[in-house]
Amino acid sequence: MLFKKIHHRMLEQYPLLWNMRLPGILSVLILFHIVHFCAGYGMYTGVEDMGWESPTGMYFSSSFSLFSIIGSCVIFILWLNKVFRNNAFKSFYPVSNLQLYGQFCIVFLVGFLNISGYYSFTSGYVAHARNNTSNSANEKDIELYNRVICFLQNKEDYRIDNRCSPYPFPLTRKYVSDVAIRDGKDSPDDYYYVSRDGQAYSSRQVDSIAGGQQYSYLNFCNNYAVIVPEQGFRYASQNRYEQGLAEYSASILLRDPQKLKADMKAFLVLCAKNKVSYRLDAEDWFSWVNNPPYYPVRYTIFQKYYTPSRYASSENTDVTAQAALQQNPKGYFVEVQKLRAILQHTQKAYEYTYESGPLLGMLYAALGIALLIFSFRATSRRIWMISLVGSALLGLVIGALTTVLALGGSKEGILYFYLLIIAAFLVIHLISTGKTVSGVALNWFTWFLPLVSTILLGLLGSKSYSRTTINGVQQSSEPWVFDHLELYFLICLLLYLLLLCFVLVPRYRQWQAMPEN
After folding, report:
1. What is the C-alpha separation between 82 and 13, in angstroms, rounded?
2. What's the pTM value of the predicted model, to 2 decimals?
3. Residue 143 or 231, more confident
4. What's the Cα-to-Cα distance from 329 to each of 26, 294, 325, 326, rounded to whole Å?
5. How far is CA 65 from the centre of its chain?
6. How buried is residue 29: exposed, middle or buried, by Cβ count under 10 Å (0-12/13-18/19+)?
7. DSSP string covering 140-201, please?
8. Which among 96, 101, 94 has a CA at the least distance from the CA of 501?
9. How many whole angstroms separate alpha carbon 135 and alpha carbon 351?
10. What are phi and psi of 216, to 5 degrees?
11. What is the mean pLDDT of residues 462-475?
12. What is the predicted pLDDT for the residue at 506?
């Protein structure tokens, strides 16, 4: 009874909203976004199941995105089916310009809400990640991870040419002498190394400098993965930040060995807190400092993701599963990769910001959808189908002409050609006395007009601007718009909506009043 009263009141007092079924579709879309938020929040039952991707990537890599696309299409089709049953404009009911423009705005709003479920999913996913721990606590966990991770390498990682100390280490390059290359020989005696200051050392000189500590963590290499703020994880050899971290970790052994042991214990506690599997004791771990094991302890060989056979194939294709187990008879492991994924994911969640670029893209996509539906309501089906099919054929013709112009090497000529075509649509609509030609031209002008913003930007970019050099840095005097593209396209969108309201909508009403052909 209550719904029936609301239905009659909407019909009598708000016919536009009733005709567009706005209350019903908004209720469905609000529920649609709530489902997306809950899916993003609860897609992964625990922090240990979170993936490597950023919050943006998690939406597109999840199976839920397919459900989102299908659900969006179903909702939109069912709503349009309800809306198209009653078209007051085509039935010649008195519809003002403002009411006709209001129909377009409603379609534009519904279209945007219908394709923007990604934002709700991402918001839920970010909320889930941030709910696990505070930002400051996660930063401290990352610092601890970076301090200790180098001590989970295996002995074969500690080579002469990637040691950190003493001087002249680290040695950055390794070469084979020209004599060895000419004679086809390749022995260690023929290798030589280059330090940062460019001095070369033979293999025997390097062995002498090493002082018998070839496998000591006091001279560990930089080739291990750390978490870098705003960059995810990288390998230490790629960045001075990690190199300094490596030198700092090595100095812990000399300054305060107990501090390192405490860090190792804290690291295992961190693993337990994040439900990361490990089978390792801090005392045994610390005892490896000057004699690292030959087998890596970076990840388990017993969990379901790393079975013994997969471990063997990932480390060395010649190593069997039994041989891999023999290398680690006590079964020591720490799932470092999973821990890094968790810390990195939480870090990205706190650093995540909603960029305006994707939002602007969705607004333009909603604009395109709204223009197609609006023109379908404002013109006959025959005119709309001719316009739609004709635009595809027109695109082929324009593409062929563009190719011809491109052979002449005139980029600006192509862009001016596009502007001329769009202007021609408007002229044809204004001078045509036939309703079919006039309606098709009006639809084409309405559909293609948003492209003018991109064409103007291309014309502006094709100009040559002065470039000067100040203090060795090249300066450019390119227009302001190239540094504010998102703002530029937003302004163009608002201008187009105003033009649609005050120019195009009245033209559709005048066209509807034209006599039939």
Report:
1. 19
2. 0.69
3. 143
4. 62, 12, 6, 5
5. 14
6. buried
7. HHHHHHHHHGGGG--GGG--GGGB--STTPPEEEEEE-HHHHHHT---GGGEEEEETTS-EE
8. 101
9. 9
10. -85, 145
11. 57
12. 92
Which amino acid belongs to residue 231? Answer: Q
Tokens for 198? 């460019």
Contact 294, 327 (CB under 8 A): yes
Exposed, middle or buried: residue 80 (CB in 10 Å: 0-12, 13-18, 19+)? middle
Task: Give the helix/strand (H/E) hosting 46.
Answer: none
Q: Label each residue of 455-494 as H, E or C.
A: HHHHHHHHCCCCEEEECCEEEECCCHHHHCHHHHHHHHHH
SS3 for 279?
strand
User: Residue type at 229?
Assistant: P
d(CA 166, CA 265): 28
Question: Do residues 269 and 282 lie in contact, with contact meaning Cβ atoms separated by under 8 Å?
Answer: no
Q: How far apart are the C-alpha atoms of 370 and 217, rounded to whole Å?
A: 65
Structure tokens at 143: 């610092």
Q: Please report the pLDDT score of residue 233 as a whole number.
A: 47
User: Is residue 489 a contact partner of residue 360, using CB atoms and an 8 Å limit?
Assistant: yes
Q: Say if CB 168 and CB 209 are below 8 A apart.
A: yes
114 or 22, which is more confident:
114
- Extended strands (E) in 258-308: 278-279
DSSP state of 221: B
- Alpha helical stretches, state H, 328-478: 336-351, 356-378, 381-407, 411-431, 435-448, 452-462
Helix axes 97-115, 22-42, angle to 10 degrees: 20
Spatial separation of the C-alpha atoms in residues 5 and 1, rounded to whole Å: 6
Ranked by mean pLDDT, the top range of 76-80, 126-130, 212-216, 329-333 is 76-80
- Separation of alpha carbons 182 and 190, rounded Å: 12
Distance CA 54, CA 348 (A): 6
pLDDT tens figures, 149-169: 777 766 555 555 556 566 677
Question: How does strand 467-470 pair with strand 333-334?
Answer: unpaired
Give mean pLDDT, residues 209-226: 51
101-119 pLDDT, tens digit per residue, is: 988 999 999 999 999 988 8
504 DSSP assignment: I
Distance CA 388, CA 20 (A): 23
The mean pLDDT of 466-482, rounded to a whole number, is 61
Residues facing 173 on adjacent strands? 194
